[in-house]
Write a structure and sequence with these properties.
The structure is a single chain. The protein is elongated. It is an alpha+beta fold and about 110 residues long. The chain has two helices and six strands; from the N terminus they run αββββαββ. The strands form two sheets. A four-stranded antiparallel sheet has the order 1-2-3-4, covered by helices on one side. The protein has a two-stranded antiparallel sheet with strand order 5-6.
Length: about 110
């Protein structure tokens, strides 16, 4: 989710270039969560001391933080060199095996 959509969902108020909201990771009476946008990414900071992981887990619990898809890792299982008559490498063909990684949330 974008910083704007997180801020709206948490009923944040504008503060400079970002927003201030009640932190979902702790019982917050005064808005302590700073939310801002940087290059399309949401930057979050709890001024009351909650860790980044705690804040993100609380946002996930509210459905406000999307899981990043886990990219399969490719392992090289063979490499084939193609050389000219003098033995100089012209190009290489690499064969991969895709390994599925488990998400940290799994």
């Amino acid at each position: 989710m974008s910083a704007d959509s997180i801020a709206r969902a948490l009923k944040a108020r504008r503060s400079g270039a970002g927003w201030m909201a009640k932190c979902p990771a702790h019982d917050d009476n005064n808005p302590s969560l700073s939310i801002r946008d940087a290059d399309g990414k949401a930057l979050l900071h709890c001024h009351a001391g909650c860790g980044q992981r705690e804040v993100i887990e609380a946002l996930k619990g509210k459905g406000l933080w999307a899981e990043r898809p886990v990219k399969p890792r490719r392992k090289i299982i063979a490499a084939y060199d193609y050389t000219d008559e003098a033995g100089q490498l012209l190009y290489q063909v690499v064969r991969h095996r895709t390994e599925r990684l488990l998400s940290a949330a799994s």
